[in-house]
Design goal:
Elements (H helix, E strand, L loop, with lengths): L3 H8 L27 H5 L1 H4 L7 H12 L3 H13 L6 H13 L3 H15 L5 H13 L3 H12 L10 H14 L2 H10 L9 H13 L3 H13 L6 H14 L2 H13 L6 H13 L3 H13 L6 H13 L3 H13 L6 H13 L3 H13 L6 H13 L3 H13 L6 H13 L3 H13 L6 H13 L3 H13 L6 H13 L3 H11 L10 H13 L3 H13 L6 H13 L8 H13 L3 H13 L6 H11 L2 H16 L1
Helix pairs in contact: 4-5, 4-6, 6-7, 6-8, 7-8, 8-9, 8-10, 9-10, 10-11, 10-12, 11-12, 12-13, 12-14, 13-14, 14-15, 14-16, 15-16, 16-17, 16-18, 17-18, 18-19, 18-20, 19-20, 20-21, 20-22, 22-23, 22-24, 23-24, 24-25, 24-26, 25-26, 26-27, 26-28, 27-28, 28-29, 28-30, 29-30, 30-31, 30-32, 33-34, ...
Length: 636
């Protein structure tokens, strides 16, 4: 065969096959590679060696064209094989199924699978079935995966018996669809089908449970799998650690890491990165940095994600200087700063009012030859808009598009906000229109920015048009959109319509529920119309909805009591009662904020209220925790 291959290469010339046996193959493909098997090669096969007796040459050709995703050439090869009455074996089709997966053509894979027995006289086994099932699931067609399973496995005269990979794929599809309980049922049935779950089975189910916030059930599977003789891998622990970190339960996550060491599983990059990300989400940046040092000392090399996560966390806490120092430290250690790190840094510097430093970092990134991606460009555009420079930001957007970097909804939203902020409503609306021209889908955030800007500019009628357009598109308004419309209606004197919209909010999902800003808009409108009793009723409703008042809430009521009540009141008694009511609801943080406002306004609480404050804030456990923290700071 080795002597045949050069001869075969020379004989590959363009040819047209009249056979129509594989007419379902896509016809539009690149012909950059030599087109398939010539008559000369097939006709001379008996003299060229054991081509007819062996299938390695056919396999090599199918492998080559499948790798190139050249379906027209595959069509020619298989047609020639049929004309020569060659034997088709399953491994040919496995290659083609993978090619269909790379080409995102799951239905073509299904069609070929069903044609294998009668057209190519090759009976598919579970290997072919799993290959096609994987293609379907990789494309996200989860319901179609179950149709294919039921049709193929339940069919008569089939020799397909599901194995552990089959069940793993089905469990993955179920978990993706949120059918976790159904997935558990299938999981429990696996031993009855003489199919023992493997580590991937457990990992898939654990991940599904974690995504449904059923962490305890996921953790219990860890003990179960070990009892069943299936030993966890670092991936198993990483799934659970990720779930616990997202939930904010860092203590249990840390215990799982200790458990990893006991089981002989060493934490890897993913483990450390997950823990560091969890610590950053909780604002525990110092601990994240300590964990980074531990990671290095454990000979686990940090990567761009590790440093990028900490830099992003520092920036979000306003510790931009520390972020810059960390970046310098990274470079000194020989770690390249990637686009993600630069994006976090540039965005944080702009938010911290350090635009010159941000532009310096942008220039530095360009000089080092980094190619800005959408995230970095968007950070720069957002930063320039925050500085009141939307025209410069628009120039950056043009450069971004020219360089083939596609703007996303966040990019356009930032630019819209920038123009609205500078009072250029017309340009902001034009940016909205440009989004459609560039085929960028208007997201929920985009609608919120547009509606808020139009209401702020006094264009209530246009804002209502945008509102109706959003609803027609099936896009649900968030709290910002609702609050903006309520503000616009209140400014236009349509308080009754604003209250109707507010009542509608109360029946929406969590992201559309009224927040303190929404309540303050209505408090202000009601108090301006001297509907103080209605405002107080709304305040009671606010407390019942577990929404705490803020400084703006206090100022609205204090101003009303002093200016619109006869005789005027200083508001001390009102705020004092509000503190007590919050304490009764165990809302210590909210009550503490009101006490701070009272002290700032020289309206000291009553003695009984002070006693309640001291009693709540100075509990023995809290005091001991504060003392312990002081000692740690002194000696550690």
């Amino acid at each position: 065969m080795l002597t045949l291959y050069p001869t075969m290469t020379k004989l590959l010339t363009n040819s047209i096959c009249s056979c129509r046996c594989l007419s379902s193959f896509p016809s539009k493909v690149s012909r950059a590679q030599p087109t398939p098997l010539s008559d000369q090669l097939f006709n001379s096969a008996p003299q060229s060696g054991s081509f007819r007796l062996g299938d390695s040459t056919c396999y090599s050709l199918i492998h080559h064209y499948a790798h190139k995703v050249d379906f027209a050439s595959l069509h020619d090869v298989l047609c020639r094989m049929k004309l020569q009455n060659r034997v088709f074996i399953e491994k040919y089709f496995l290659l083609i199924f993978k090619a269909y997966g790379r080409a995102h053509l799951p239905e073509k894979a299904v069609d070929l699978f069903h044609r294998m027995p009668h057209e190519f006289h090759c009976k598919p086994t579970v290997k072919s079935f799993n290959s096609v099932l994987n293609v379907i699931i990789q494309e996200g067609f989860y319901h179609r995966a179950f149709d294919f399973y039921n049709c193929s496995v339940s069919a008569k005269n089939t020799n397909i018996s599901p194995n552990v990979l089959t069940f793993n794929l089905l469990l993955k599809a179920m978990c993706k669809l949120g059918w976790v309980d159904r997935a558990i049922e299938v999981f429990r049935e696996m031993p009855l089908r003489k199919c023992a779950p493997d580590v991937y089975t457990y990992c898939t189910l654990m991940d599904g449970l974690c995504k449904e916030d059923r962490i305890d059930e996921a953790v219990s599977l860890l003990d179960e799998m070990q009892t069943e003789g299936c030993f966890p891998t670092p991936v198993t622990f990483n799934v659970l650690i990720n779930g616990l970190c997202k939930k904010g339960d860092l203590a249990r996550a840390a215990k799982l890491v200790d458990n990893m060491f006991l089981k002989g599983c060493l934490p890897n990059q993913v483990t450390y990165n997950t823990l560091i990300h969890g610590l950053c989400l909780k604002g525990k940046l110092d601990k994240a940095v300590i964990l980074l040092d531990r990671m290095v000392s454990s000979n686990c090399i940090p990567n761009d994600i590790t440093y990028g996560t900490i830099v992003n966390g520092l920036v979000k806490q306003g510790r931009v200087e520390d972020a810059v120092m960390l970046v310098v430290s990274m470079e000194e250690r020989g770690y390249g700063v990637n686009e993600y790190v630069y994006s976090a840094l540039i965005s944080g510097l702009f938010k911290g009012g350090k635009s010159e430093e941000a532009m310096k970092r942008w220039t530095e990134m360009m000089e080092k030859g980094y190619k800005p991606n959408t995230v970095v460009y968007s950070s720069l555009i957002d930063g320039l808009c925050r500085e009141g420079k939307p025209n410069e930001a628009e120039e950056v957007l043009s450069e971004m598009i020219e360089k083939g970097c596609i703007p996303n909804a966040y990019t356009y939203s930032s630019l819209m906000k920038g123009f609205f902020k500078t009072g250029n409503c017309h340009k902001a609306v034009q940016v909205w229109k440009d989004m459609a021209e560039h085929k960028c889908i208007h997201s929920q955030v985009c609608y919120s920015v547009l509606i808020h800007g139009l209401c702020e500019d006094g264009n209530l009628s246009e804002a209502m048009m945008a509102w109706r357009h959003m609803l027609d598109k099936g896009c649900k308004p968030d709290a910002v959109a609702y609050s903006s419309m309520i503000q616009g209606l209140c400014n236009a004197g349509s308080l009754e319509e604003a209250l109707k919209l507010f009542n509608e909010m109360l029946y929406q999902e969590a992201e559309s529920q009224p927040d303190v800003i929404t309540y303050n808009i209505l408090f202000n409108a009601l108090c301006n119309q001297k509907s103080i009793s209605h405002a107080v009723d709304l305040l009671n409703s606010m407390l019942d909805q577990a929404c705490d008042p803020d400084i703006a809430t206090c100022n609205i009521f204090l101003r009303t009591l002093r200016e619109k009540v006869d005789p005027p009141q200083d508001g001390r008694e009102f705020l004092d009662e509000l503190v007590i009511r919050l304490f009764k609801r165990q809302r210590v943080f909210g009550a503490s904020k009101i006490v701070q406002v009272m002290l700032q306004k020289f309206l000291p609480p009553k003695a009984s209220t002070w006693a309640r404050v001291v009693e709540e804030l100075c509990k023995p456990k809290k005091i001991q925790a504060a003392i312990d923290k002081c000692w740690r700071n002194i000696y550690c």
